[in-house]
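Recap from last week: sequence in, structure out.
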Amino acid sequence: MIDTAKINYDLVAITPQGQTLHLNEVLRNLTWEENPGELAVRLEAELQNQQLPSGRWLHQQLPLGGQVFLYADWGADRQEIFRGTVFNWHYRTDPLGHFTITAYDPLIYLAKSKDDRYYSSGTLARVIIEDIAKAWQIPLGTVEGPDIGLAKQVFRGRTLADMIFDVLDQAKKRGAGKWIVRSKQGKIDIVRPGQNSPVYHFGADDSVAQVEDQQDIEDLVTRVKIVGAEDKEGRAPVVATLDGRTEFGVLQDLVYKEQYDNLAAAKAAAQDILAERGQPRKKRRITAPDLPFLRRGDKVHIAAGTLIGYYLVAGVVHNANDRTMSLEVEDVG
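Predicted C-alpha cells:
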C-alpha cells in the first residue's frame, strides 16, 4: 500500500494572463469526487484570498471559466489527477477573506447541454458516444467499445449525458456488458470497469477506518402483472405475470398493456421493472487512506467488516486535507 504521508498534492490554476499559479500555500480545503450516475468529476477548493506581487488579488485570477489542474505524486512521478473549468465561485469573510471554487472536468458540458440527435438502426454504441463527444469538441482518449449495433436512436431535448447513459444501458441489454465513460487529461475514455492493475487491497487491520454496509428491500418488486383492457363491466384480465425474487414474498407492480403497442412491448417494460427494482438495494462504503488516482470503475479488494471480496468503485470522494477517501462500492459483474 502507498504511504499516504508521502503523497504530494499540487493544485494549479491558469490565470487570465496565461500564468501558472501553484495554490498549495493558500489552500484551506480540497476535495474531488466522482458520483454514481454522473459523468463529470467535481473538484472543490477553498482558498485564502491574498494580494499577489502583481498587485492583483488571488480571487481575480480565478474567474468563472478559468482552468484548474490537480497533480499528485505518490512516488511514481507527478501525475495529473484532474483538469477542469471553474463553474462556481463563492467569496466570504470569517473575518479574513477566503473563497471557494467548484470546477468540473470537460464531461460537465455533456451533462449541462441538451440536443436533438438521430442515429440510424445498426449504429454502434461506441460510434454514437464518439459522435457526441466530437460534436462538443471533447477529444477522444482510450475508446475500447462498446462495439455493438443498436436500434434506431431518436433523442429529443435530452441532455447529452442522458443520451450516453441510455446508449450504454441498451448496449448492456444487448450483451455488450458494462462500460464506464470518464475523462482523463481532458479526453473522454470509454473503458470496461475493473481493468486497472494493480488491484489495491483494503483490510481492516491496515487501512480501513470505517465500513458501512446497508441493505434493504424497501423498494423491491418481486412480481409484475400485465393487465389487459377492461371489458364492459370494468373487469381487466391479467394477460401475463412475470416473477422475480418471490422468496422475499409478493411485492407487486402493474403494467397496463394498453399503454404499449403490443404484449411483447408490455413484457419488456415489466422486465425492465424487475431489472431495476428486482434486487435488494445495497449501499456499501469504506473510509480509507487516499489513493488520489483511484477512479469510479476501478476494481478493489476489501476484507473489512461485512465486505469480503472484490468490488467495483461506484463513487469516490477524495479529501486531500486529511489524506483519506470514501469509497462507495458495488459487486463486480
